[in-house]
Amino acid sequence: MGSYRPWLLCSEDFASVQENKEAMQRTLSHNFITNNMYPQVKDENLVGSYPALVKSGGGYVWDDVLEYRVWCSPREGAPDEDDGSDYYYYFADYDEAYQFSIATQGAENPIALILQKEYISEPEPQQYVHVKTERLTEWPVEFLSRPKRTENTIPDFLSPNAPANRLDILRGLA
Question: What is the pLDDT of residue 163?
Answer without folding.
Answer: 94
